[in-house]
């Protein structure tokens, strides 16, 4: 397309290199190289599709994150959306707006990390688009997954009396970011949760297959914000038990020095854990895929979230923007 085509020779070479990497590391045929990828879907499954956009200096800071880890994370945060529906991820599409500051070796490290994370879950990079960008690095990732027809778990469906469960631990990633912003090195377990989160695929699939949840989503914007999405979609309210929030050892140790850090577990974001409501109250005792779940409260009639302290008082989260979720 001559002048209007801003794809240079470098881009074509890069696409060729990406195709080679995909084919040498995947059991599935790559869709890269034609105008479209072709996929044959089983007739008893529904297709899940989700997209995430990551922009340099908004969603990531290259001074803090290696390009390999950034590649891994761009996959993980997308796979987390498939996990949140109870699905099995299948293919990825990668749109790259390549900033001029980015060296080719850095871009290749990004792709290596991207493919590493995809391989962990048997997901293939099936296509994308690559273009030079005059601005920051932009990464657009689309993920597709499959779920048995009728088994997808939505945000809507929570009923009064349902228990609320969260997987893993909360606040680790936000605490790592908090420390990085303060110029401190976060302890390794926290840094790992920030740089290389894991999508809870196995847990999400089991919850979906066994119909354990009435509604589910992944915690990406912080527990309160995401719980609020679930509550609004379902037309109900919730009680959270502050002392029940699942916290890692590293988080608890920081909390011992500064109790207000609890707000990072409530509203920090980037946890990529699963949050779901369930009519069953015994799931803590059930053998579930790692990292398992903890009961953090229950669904009630009405609207909003009450965070209950052990003495019965309501706790007000001071993290900006979230206090208005408290019920009046
Ligand atoms: P078109 O001009 O038809 O859009 P492109 O030259 O952009 O074709 O892409 C050629 C092939 O390379 C397509 O199959 C496309 O999906 C794939 N591709 C381009 N960029 C990427 C990328 N960043 N990651 C994976 N596949 C890519
Ligand atoms: Mg294209």
TrEMBL record:
GO terms for biological process: thiamine biosynthetic process; thiamine diphosphate biosynthetic process. Mg(2+) 5 binds at residue 221. It is an enzyme of class 2 (transferase). It holds the Pfam family AIRS. Transmembrane segments: none annotated. Mg(2+) 3 binds at residues 35, 81, 218. ATP binds at residues 128-129, 155, 220. Coiled coil: none annotated. Mg(2+) 1 binds at residues 52, 129. Its EC number is 2.7.4.16. Mg(2+) 4 binds at residues 35, 50, 81. Residues 33-147 form the PurM-like N-terminal domain. It catalyses: thiamine phosphate + ATP = thiamine diphosphate + ADP. HAMAP family: TMP_kinase. Belongs to the thiamine-monophosphate kinase family. Reaction mechanism of ThiL seems to utilize a direct, inline transfer of the gamma-phosphate of ATP to TMP rather than a phosphorylated enzyme intermediate. Catalyzes the ATP-dependent phosphorylation of thiamine-monophosphate (TMP) to form thiamine-pyrophosphate (TPP), the active form of vitamin B1. PANTHER family: THIAMINE-MONOPHOSPHATE KINASE. This is Thiamine-monophosphate kinase.
């Amino acid at each position: 397309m001559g002048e209007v085509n801003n794809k240079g020779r470098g881009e074509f070479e890069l696409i060729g290199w990406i195709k080679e990497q995909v084919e040498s590391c995947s059991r599935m045929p790559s869709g890269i190289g034609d105008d479209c990828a072709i996929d044959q879907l089983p007739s008893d499954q529904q297709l899940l599709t989700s997209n995430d956009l990551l922009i340099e200096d908004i969603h990531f800071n290259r001074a803090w994150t290696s390009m390999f880890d950034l590649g891994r994370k761009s996959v993980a945060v997308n796979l987390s959306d498939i996990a949140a529906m109870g699905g099995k991820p299948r293919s990825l599409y990668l749109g790259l707006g390549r900033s001029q500051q980015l060296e080719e070796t850095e871009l290749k490290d990004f792709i290596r990390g991207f493919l590493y994370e995809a391989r962990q879950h048997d997901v293939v990079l099936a296509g994308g688009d690559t273009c030079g960008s005059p601005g920051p690095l932009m990464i657009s990732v689309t993920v597709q997954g499959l779920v048995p027809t009728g088994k997808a778990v939505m945000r809507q469906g929570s009923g009064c009396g349902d228990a609320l469960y969260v997987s893993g631990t909360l606040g680790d990633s936000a605490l790592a970011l908090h420390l990085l912003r303060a110029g401190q090195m976060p302890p390794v377990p926290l840094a790992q949760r920030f740089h290389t989160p894991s999508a809870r695929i196995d847990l999400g699939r089991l919850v979906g297959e066994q119909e354990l949840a009435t509604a589910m989503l992944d915690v990406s914007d912080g527990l309160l914000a995401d719980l609020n999405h679930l509550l609004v979609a379902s037309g109900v309210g919730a009680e959270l038990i502050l002392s029940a929030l699942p916290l890692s050892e590293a988080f608890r140790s920081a909390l011992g020095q500064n109790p207000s850090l609890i707000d990072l577990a409530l509203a920090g974001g980037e946890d990529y854990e699963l949050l779901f409501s369930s009519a069953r109250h015994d799931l803590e005792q059930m053998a579930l895929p790692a990292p398992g779940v903890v009961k953090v409260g229950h669904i009630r009639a009405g609207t909003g979230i009450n965070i209950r302290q052990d003495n019965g008082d309501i706790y007000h989260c001071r993290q900006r923007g979230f206090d208005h979720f408290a019920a009046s």
